Every structure is written in C-alpha cells, then in structure tokens.
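Obj: model holo form, ligand = NAX.
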Amino acid sequence: MESLDAAPTRPVKVAVSGAAGNIAYSLLWRLAAGDVFGVERQIDLRLLEVPERVRAAEGVAMELADSAFPLLATVTVTDEDTRAFDGVDAAFLVGSRPRTKGQSRADMLEANGRIFIGQGRALNDGAAEGVRVLVVGNPANTNAYIAAKAAPDIPRSSFNALMRLDHNRALSMLSAKLAVPAAQIEGLVVWGNHSDTQFPDIEFLTVGGKSVAGDIDRDWYENELIPRVAKRGGEIIEVRGQSSAASAASAAVDHMRDWVAGTNGRWVTVAQPSTGEYGVDEGLVFGFPTTGLNGRASIVPGLDLNDFQRERIAANVEALREEAAIADQLFTSI
Ligand code: NAX
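Output (holo structure tokens):
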C-alpha cells in the first residue's frame, strides 16, 4: 500500500485495538471527527477486539454509524490482527493486559508479549509504508518495544508509546502553579517510562522565552509534582470510580496529530525507541523531549543535564532495561 503522503486524497486507514474499551469509546469519535488527520481526509476505521468482545465492538460501530460523521467512510469490526492492520497508515494499540493484583511482572509481560508480538508481526506483513503505531496499552513502553522488535521491516521509529497524558498532566499542574495558561509554557518533558519512575523535568521550562525553573518551589516540585503526576491515574480512579479514559484518548489524539502535522518547534513528550540519546540504551522506548517537524519526530539534542536529572533518567533506563530483558526472552518461545 502506498504511503499516505504519496496519496493525499485517499482515505486514511486507521486501526484501533481495544475498540470496545473505555479509551476507544472516546478516541474513535475524535478520529471520526477529523481531530487527528484533518477535516479534509476521509477515514476507514478498523475496530480490533478479542473474540468475546467483538459483539460489543459491533455496538460501538453502530453508534459510530448513528453519529453520521461526514468523514467516516467505512468501519470494520474484527478479531483478526491481519485484517485489522491490512494497509493501515496508523494504529492505536490500546488493548492490552495491564498487571492484575498479585500478578508477577514476568507473567504480565508474557501475556503482553503474546499480544504485541502477534500484532507487530501482522503490522510488519500488512501495514502501509510510513505507518505510525502508537501503543497506549500498558506497560506501554515495553509493549511498543515488543511490537517494534516483532516488525523488522518497519523502521523502529514508527513505534511510539503514549506518554503525552503524563506530559499533559504535568503541564496542567504547572499552569495552575505558575498561574499562566498551559499554552504559554514551553520546554516541558516527562522522561522515561509510563510508570512510577517517570520524571517530569522542569529544568528547561520557559514562559514567554524566560526561564521559570528558578521560580518554582523545589520542595513542591520534588515532593508533590513529580509523585502526583505518576499517581494521577490512581487519583482519577479514586474520585471518578473508573480509570482515565477521555483524557487518555485526548492525549493519544494530541500525540498522533503532532506526529502527522508537526509541533512548530514546541516540545512535547514522545516515548520512542532510543538511538542512544542521553545515555538511554538503543532500542528502549523512552520518553524524550521531542519536536515534530515535517511529520517526523526528532529528539531535542544537546541538552546539558545536572546530577538530579541524570539520576532520574538512569532509574528509568534501569527499569526499562529489566522489562526489555524479560521481553527479549519471549521471542524465543512465542
Ligand atoms: P478497557 O479494559 O476498558 O478496554 C481494553 C479493551 O482491550 C477490552 O475491551 C479488551 O477486550 C481489549 N483487548 C485486550 N486484548 C486485546 C487484543 N489482544 N486485541 C484487541 N483488543 C484487546 O481499558 P481502557 O480503559 O480502554 O485502557 C486500555 C489500556 O490503556 C490499558 O492497558 C490501560 O492500562 C492503558 N492506559 C494507558 C495510559 C497511557 O498513558 N499510556 C493511560 C490510560 C490507561 O491507563
């Protein structure tokens, strides 16, 4: 299938796994409204689910039809990876097996290995040239690592994991603290893994071109902002009674839209395969400060890091290295 860029008038083909789940229930409507690929582009949606949730996904497809979106060309519901990913330009891999109570990390990673090795292989065989794959399902970074490894014919840089929700959460908290609109804050990044070790970094923050890191109370930053961003998902569950869904979908929309259209120089957090930047092992899918230019995401180069930053980044490298070592073993058995 020719790349989307080479065929500006054909519909964009987009797969969403976990299509009957909470996040997809918001994400699919944003996609069909043109929030990611623009209001000029028709969209073919592929809704991927496990067999026992296909009927529920068919109900979601019925509701999409009832929304009469002008851009929605077709909706296909399937439980087959190969059918979902055939010719796709973009895939949102939302369905996964997050860790359950009492489950070991190795068991959780094995369950995900089965899913993401299979989906990586199906993407490798069927996706369009230039496909962009955004992994949302947890453990998102390592699931993206697994899918990329299972797809040797697709450039590794085509696989990202979602850390934009962490970024948006930190941005919103900083906006309240600094009493300036979020849009005026530049230079934010959440380094590392979408997990408790993630590192929201304020060292490079600017407002109106002026550094503001020195204006932020250090105790609040280290003891409130950093842990609160990492635990925000739990806070939402406690208050709402359900996990983050619309905000996660919105972050996925932000991520993919910026990947396609660029960020105009603005930093965003993109978890993407390292090519050795900032001491991160090659291949690990790591949250980096990123600008999207001409549809290609590039890691902000040459930042000077202090000891505090280096230690926090190293803790994330260590955690992801351990996950990757377990994931690597799965390739010999799956
Ligand atoms: P739900 O449990 O509502 O939906 C997940 C859906 O995925 C289910 O319908 C399930 O049948 C389906 N599924 C499972 N395995 C599948 C497979 N192999 N192929 C296709 N579909 C499959 O979860 P939801 O609230 O939508 O969350 C989805 C994932 O996002 C979870 O892993 C969650 O932990 C993760 N999150 C990631 C975030 C991030 O920032 N990276 C934030 C939000 C969210 O916590």
